[in-house]
Write a structure and sequence with these properties.
It is built from ten helices and nine strands. The chain is an alpha+beta fold. It has two domains: 66 residues, Winged helix-like DNA-binding domain superfamily/Winged helix DNA-binding domain (Arc Repressor Mutant, subunit A); 175 residues, Beta-Lactamase, CATH 3.30.450.40. α5 packs across α10. The longest helix is centred in the middle third of the chain and has 31 residues.
Length: 252
């Protein structure tokens, strides 16, 4: 055993190997295919395959036949989209943070979740800083609702028709109808805002050259600061200015 393999987890290695077997010429593979490539019996791959199924990385298409499922695609696209967006948005968000002394964040939509991919962290004691990689249901955050604006009515109905919104208490929307009204109002005003846990966030959309919402940014501060109407208005205007500047150079 070499030093590089000494600390590897065999089951994880096999699971990653299974995923790597899929390519443009091998879109559907069988349990026997996995076993042959791993050099083990078909029965010994059962738990690994079942784990990948449960986690959404594989999808069963026939008896003992599988293809890659949505987790691979969504996480891959989220990463690639986020990488270019971060490069473009980071300088603008850092500048907004420096001008306002309030924390700013960048997020994209991954399914029904808002995925935080960048933050410009303010140093003040009362600053609000959401860790990178945080996921929040779209309907309960300002950035999340901005991100839902990219959905058509058909897409919105398809992904929310089975969702139960009242698991999150007021002031979050409790029904689909209430969420739709809120999204319409926020779209018309050009920004979204949300108050929770003694903090207030204002969010604005990032559009690509075709006008499609590809991301959202926010400015998020403690209520001691954001409850001041003058400071709120100033922060909102600077946020919208920053969103416009990023949108002018945002990747497709």
């Amino acid at each position: 055993m070499t030093k590089t393999t000494e600390y590897q987890v065999p089951a994880l290695v096999r699971g990653l190997h299974i995923i790597e077997l899929f390519d443009a010429n091998h879109r559907v593979l069988s349990t026997q295919d996995f076993a042959d490539q791993l050099g083990v019996s078909a029965s010994s791959t059962y738990r690994i395959v079942q784990t990948l199924l449960d986690r959404g990385y594989l999808k069963k298409v026939a008896r003992n036949a599988y293809e890659l499922d949505s987790q691979i695609v969504s996480r891959g696209f989220a990463y690639l989209a986020g990488k270019d967006l971060i490069d473009v948005a980071a300088p603008h968000l850092n500048q907004l943070r420096d001008e306002t002394s309030i924390s700013c964040h960048l997020a994209i939509r991954d399914g029904l979740d808002t995925l935080y991919i960048y933050r410009a962290q303010a140093s003040q004691r009362l600053s609000v800083n959401i860790p990178l990689g945080t996921r929040l249901p779209c309907h309960i955050s300002a950035m999340g609702r901005v991100l839902l604006q990219q959905l058509s009515d058909i897409e919105f109905s398809a992904i929310y028709q089975t969702q139960q919104l009242d698991m999150h208490p007021h002031p979050h929307p409790q029904t689909i109808a209430e969420l739709k009204r809120l999204l319409k109002n926020e779209w018309q005003q050009g920004y979204s805002s949300n108050r929770s846990d003694n903090a207030t966030a204002i969010a604005a959309p990032i559009h690509n050259y075709m006008g499609k919402v590809v991301a959202a940014i926010n400015i998020s501060g403690a209520d001691q600061v954001m409850n001041d109407p003058e400071k709120f208005e100033e922060a909102k205007n600077q946020l919208l200015k920053t969103a416009k500047a990023i949108s002018e150079v945002a990747p497709a």
